[in-house]
Amino acid sequence: EVQLVESGGDLVQPGGSLRLSCAASGFNFGNFAMSWVRQAPGKGLQWVSGIGVTGAGTYYADSVKGRFTISRDNSKNTLYLQMNNLRAEDTALYYCAKKYGSGLHYFDYWGQGTLVTVSS
Amino acid sequence: EIVLTQSPGTLSLSPGERATLSCRASQSVSSSDLAWYQQKPGQAPRLLIYGASTRATGIPDRFSGSGSGTDFALTISRLEPEDFAVYYCQQYGTSPLYTFGQGTKLEIK
Lengths: 120, 109
Known about the structure:
The structure holds 2 protein chains of 2 kinds. Chain A is mainly β.
């Protein structure tokens, strides 16, 4: 059974940093691209960042470029999101999502999310 | 950036009725790169349809997707109580890599 379990969300002050983790199991993690997608309270879905299977290719939404860094450790089946210089507008539930497969640009599995709150 | 606009914002229907949700793109989108998700309160999104019209694994056949170019639709043929949720369309592009529509809330009338 595929499982994605996020952790690391917390209350942080503006300008602060957090590192989110997503522990994957039930599939060959190193064979699939992964992404982070966030959802602000009561709002819709926003793609934040994505990473290729080896970690060499990384992609970001303009709103987080230069502040967030996505990475992965295939030996630990874990996806990360380092979030620096956090802003109030980064407050959201952060989901990690597994890409369906090579050439198939959808997310077939999602975690339950970890909540990031940026507030003083 | 391609913008996806979903309509209506809220759709009020009764169980047993037919629901049609629209997703319009600001530029032409490849059908192979258009997906639909369902999200229930307190839950993560669930992939329903990919490639504009292919049902994901385990999705009942009352769900169907259609469309091409800039106009896509999700149809639920006969609404079941568990179908009342928020639905999002999503497309794959270049910058940003993925965009979602703002969602359509399907509520019980």
